[in-house]
Specification:
Elements lengths: L3 H8 L15 E12 L2 E10 L6 E10 L6 E3 L5 E4 L4 H13 L1 E3 L6 E5 L14 E2 L7 E5 L8 E5 L9 H11 L8 E10 L7 E11 L7 H11 L4 H21 L7 H21 L7 H12 L18 E4 L3 E4 L10 H5 L5 H17 L8 H18 L8 H22 L5 H11 L2
Antiparallel strand pairs: 1-2, 2-3, 3-5, 4-5, 6-7, 7-11, 8-9, 9-10, 10-12, 11-12, 13-14
Helix pairs in contact: 4-9, 5-10, 6-7, 6-11, 7-11, 9-10, 9-11, 11-12
Bound molecules: adenosine-5'-diphosphate (ADP) and the ligand O=P(O)(O)O[C@H]1O[C@H](CO)[C@@H](O[C@H]2O[C@H](CO)[C@@H](O)[C@H](O)[C@H]2O)[C@H](O)[C@H]1O.
Pfam families: Mak_N_cap (PF18085)
Catalytic activity: D-maltose + ATP = alpha-maltose 1-phosphate + ADP + H(+)
Pathway: Glycan biosynthesis; glycogen biosynthesis
Length: 443
């Protein structure tokens, strides 16, 4: 009869959030918490360490143990029915209570606890059943539509978990508390303490879930921009407002968290990371070899230019991370940074130009995704959106503008990151960042 870990090992590689695609997971249980439920639906949160990749990764797997078959079944360890908690109403109810009302559950090494935000108005209502947000997500988000006057809530269950406060929670909570309207109001969070899977096994605390108000009926800008690019419809108005919103968010982050001038050591570290990404991209997509001299040239020109200050940033800004909310304006989501970057780097002050470059790459991504034969000229569309975004960013006067040589280098670096990301997750899309590197190389 299969064990729980065997069932998880067969199920995890089929999940979008499983990072080490192509390998069989090598799993070890690190922590588990019993979160109640009923005798027919026992709710647990498991932390499992996967050592199949180069670097061990710790995954959060909420589960529900049921006696009857379920459409969200993971497997049947020891004859019982093990269900994916994110698709099960019993886990939804516990999660909603944790983020809106708080609570604490003991574990062998430390507790799992929920904390509502001090600004969140606690409701006594019961949520309607949650739905899982569809889409290509690194995590799993649940939407609670709520009853009565309660606001809908989106709760992101982090799949890869790390010691320390998740930057998504850290940055968005600080911005929201400072009154920024460019992030959704915070509802609450879930954290836990566990023994780190390394040799020393010391006790650490980390984030498991983050809940914010959900804006219903708003499409993410990727879908909106893609449609505009397909139709050749002008996007310069929204792009310019988006530039202003990103600049104001950068300025707010620079007020809320420490900033410092870039030193020679920062430039060396950045250059080393650019080169490491170039090598990773070459391994994933050997066709890039022909463009190496041009890429190296872009890096060298940037390193000779003046550099901006370091500060906390979004870290993975693209059109899929922003929504244009009627009556509120542009809202930025998901401040977790790039999923392929180590968490220690994502917590550190960085260059705001990384976000600007990410958004510029995204306009180009939309243009390169337009099916052949559509009306309009997608590349002219992207050029107009790009110029409008940069105009908004500079005109707001809120944030530092960066030397164009430094911006170009961050754009190439982002395209190299995208090459690796797409090779691992969506191989059919690799042609998009590859074409970008080729264009940059052609000058
Ligand atoms: N507060 C919100 N209101 C409306 N839509 C949201 C909200 N938060 C997230 N979304 C939608 O969910 C998608 C995924 O959320 P995100 O935080 O980017 O998750 P992930 O870290 O898994 O990529 C976003 O692109 C957006 O479309
Ligand atoms: O949203 P995530 O933090 O999970 O970001 C990762 O996945 C993104 C794709 O979902 C990826 O973004 C790339 O594709 C987008 C279109 O789907 C495009 O808008 C972006 O410009 C492009 O980078 C992102 O790089 C990755 O970190």
């Amino acid at each position: 009869m299969d064990s729980t870990l065997t069932c998880l090992g067969e199920w995890m590689p089929r999940q979008r959030w499983y990072a080490n695609k192509g390998a069989a997971p090598d799993l070890r249980l690190v922590a588990e918490w019993d979160l109640g439920g009923s005798p027919d639906a026992r709710v647990q949160v498991l932390l499992v360490c996967d050592s199949s990749g180069g670097r061990p990764s710790l995954y959060q797997i909420p589960v529900v143990w049921r006696s009857e078959a379920s459409p969200a079944e993971i497997g049947r360890p020891h004859g019982a029915v093990l269900v994916d908690g994110t698709a099960d109403a019993a886990f939804h109810a516990v999660l909603y209570a944790l983020v809106t009302r708080g609570g604490r559950f003991g574990g062998a090494d430390g507790p799992l606890y929920g904390e509502p935000s001090p600004r969140h108005v606690r409701g006594s209502h019961h949520p309607l059943p949650a739905t899982v947000l569809e889409g290509e997500q690194s995590n799993t988000s649940l939407i609670f539509r709520g009853a009565g006057r309660a606001h809908p809530v989106i709760c992101k269950v982090f799949r890869q978990v790390h010691a320390g406060l998740n930057p998504d929670i850290e940055l968005q909570s600080a911005l929201s508390e400072a009154g920024a309207r460019s992030v959704p109001p915070v509802v609450g969070a879930v954290s836990a303490m566990w023994r780190a899977p390394g040799d020393e096994g010391h006790l650490v605390a980390g984030s498991l879930a983050f809940a914010q108000e959900f804006f219903p009926g708003v499409q993410d800008a990727w879908r909106v921009a893609l449609r505009a690019a397909e139709q050749g419809a002008d996007f310069s108005g929204p792009a310019e407002r988006l530039g202003v919103a990103v600049a104001e968010t950068h300025a707010a982050l620079a007020r809320l968290f420490p900033t410092r001038p870039a030193t020679a050591a920062d430039l060396d570290r950045t250059a080393a990371r650019w080169r490491a990404r170039l090598h990773a991209a070459l391994e994933a997509v050997p066709e890039l070899e022909a463009f190496v001299p041009a890429v190296e040239g872009t890096f060298a020109r940037a390193l000779a230019a003046p550099w901006p200050r370091l500060q906390r940033v979004h870290g993975d800004l693209h059109l899929g991370q922003v929504i244009d909310v009627p009556g509120r304006g542009w809202v930025l989501l998901d401040f977790e940074g790039e999923p392929l970057r180590p968490m220690s780097e994502r917590h550190a002050p960085d260059f705001a130009v990384r976000d600007v470059a990410g958004m510029l790459r995204s306009f180009a991504y939309a243009a390169d995704s337009v099916p052949a034969g559509s009306t309009g000229d997608p590349h002219a569309w992207a050029a107009t959106a790009r110029a409008a975004f940069l105009r908004g960013y500079a005109a707001s006067g809120a944030a530092e503008t960066t030397d164009p040589r430094v911006l170009s280098a961050f754009e190439v670096d982002k395209a190299l990151y995208e090459t690796v990301y797409e090779a691992r997750n969506r191989p059919d899309w690799v042609r998009i960042p590859l074409a970008a590197v080729e264009r940059i190389a052609a000058g």
